[in-house]
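Dear colleague,

Thank you for sharing your sequence with our group. We've completed the structure prediction you requested, and as agreed, I am returning the results in plain text so they can be pasted directly into your records. Please verify that the sequence below matches your submission; if there's any discrepancy, let me know and we will rerun it promptly.
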Amino acid sequence: MKESLKKIASVCKMIFGYGIMIVLFLGGLTFFGYVAALIIGGETATNICTFIYKQFIPILIYASTILILFGLLCMYLSGEKALVPDSGMKKHEGEM
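Please find the predicted structure tokens below.
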């Protein structure tokens, strides 16, 4: 059972990694959309910025939220614990 969960978790991690990479890349591309709007100017620039802000960015936010939840599910399946002190880093008695 644990081996099958580890295999599923490794596939999930790959999907999570590529998904987050794509979302971050598309988020970075919005910069070039705003630069193009700055160069073009006028009503077209307003339309470009409005499209990016009202239609494109919300999709990226929803996608990244879903991918983060997917990543947390993958961590749960693989048995990883994040933000937990490592047992090898225990302090000696009397140390602060």
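Summary note from our side: Residues 9 and 77 are 6 Å apart (CA to CA).

Kind regards,
the structure core
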